[in-house]
Amino acid sequence: MDSFGFFFVGAVPIFISAVFIIVFGFIIFAIISGLKQWNKNNNSPKLSVPAQVVAKRTDTSGGAGESRASTSYYVTFQFDSGDRLELQLSGSEYGMLAEDDLGVLSFQGTRFHSFERK
């Protein structure tokens, strides 16, 4: 066997191990990031403030071939101070809101609780 063939045969297990470690690292990173955000939301105060719905958007992923599509729903709220906050909502909550709606937004960190129209 020449030196190239020997290198190639020896490199395959190392390459597969490296890919496994990288994928596993991304999974661990995603879990830790999610837990940190969950903990931050739980430690944030629950706020209810006057706000206006200024934008709505959706983000659809998947749906290629035999896989199912998944849609995430986002609404941007603007406060009296001019500050804006985009929160993820469920599809039914998203459908009940229209741009320019005025009301009281209740949220905790990045967690949407409710929006009561005035």
Topology:
Elements: H1 3-43, E1 46-62, E2 69-79, E3 84-89, H2 91-95, E4 102-108, E5 111-117
Antiparallel strand pairs: 1-2, 1-4, 2-3, 4-5
Strand order of the largest sheet: 3-2-1-4-5
How much beta, percentage-wise? 35-45%
Q: Please count the helical segments.
A: 2
Q: Give the integer mean of the pLDDT values.
A: 91
Largest sheet: 5 strands, antiparallel
Give short descriptive properties of this protein.
118 residues; alpha+beta; five-stranded antiparallel beta sheet; 39% helix
What does this structure look like?
- The protein is α+β, with helices and mostly antiparallel strands and 118 residues long.
- It is 39% helix and 41% strand.
- It has two helices and five strands.
- It has helices at residues 3-43, 91-95; strands spanning 46-62, 69-79, 84-89, 102-108, 111-117.
- The chain has a five-stranded antiparallel beta sheet.
- A hairpin with a 6-residue loop joins strand 1 and strand 2 (69-79).
- The longest helix is centred in the N-terminal third of the chain and has 41 residues, at 3-43.
- The model has no long low-confidence stretch (mean pLDDT 91).
